[in-house]
Write a structure and sequence with these properties.
globular; 8 strands; 21% strand; single chain; 224 residues; alpha/beta; Rossmann fold; 6 helices
Length: 224
Amino acid sequence: MIIQIPLQTGSTVGYLAKPNNPNGKAVIVLQEWWGLVDHIKDICDRFAKLGFVALAPDLYNGVSAKSPDEAGKLMMALNISEAEKTIRSAIETVLGVDGVTAKTVGIVGFCMGGQLAVYAACANPNTISACVNFYGIHPSVTPDYSKLQATLLGFFAELDKSVPPETVNTLASTLQDLQKDYTFKIFENTHHAFFNDSRPQVYNKEAATECWDKMIELFTNKIN
């Protein structure tokens, strides 16, 4: 269902999925550059079926893209500071939902949202205990990795031109030097957005299934 997420000035909307049998844990889901589209809502619903309360804040305030050019313009126009405030408000909102007993949340993002998920985890170390980054990319988002406290999972594609393996390996070296708790995997013969089952031209069921299982394991064990 669509709910209001209060901000310091005004509000935005988000898609909230509530389980019939909550496990006490909550997850924030961050959109790709397309916006808060049906695919992102479906991911929230999948979490809810497993007992998680899931909330996807609308970072574009009701706008979604139909073409890559339009999506790129929306992504580049996003105010990163305001987006982080929206995510922070979404965390506060979802922690207050009936059935949520944990004091921290998990966060997952895809494409643009993947980079924002890591950014948010670094900016909110006390409330985000687990973070999953699916092939995150945004040229204007530079997380302060030194502040990262969450356990981080990163899933990437071997044939991704936006986030090539050398970029992933560089980030892994940075996190290793900082002694952060992270695990990255680059899936062979996959493309950017391989988790998105609404895009058959890039979707890879085997990789997506493995990622989903590892993500659920992380959130089950680390959200507390």
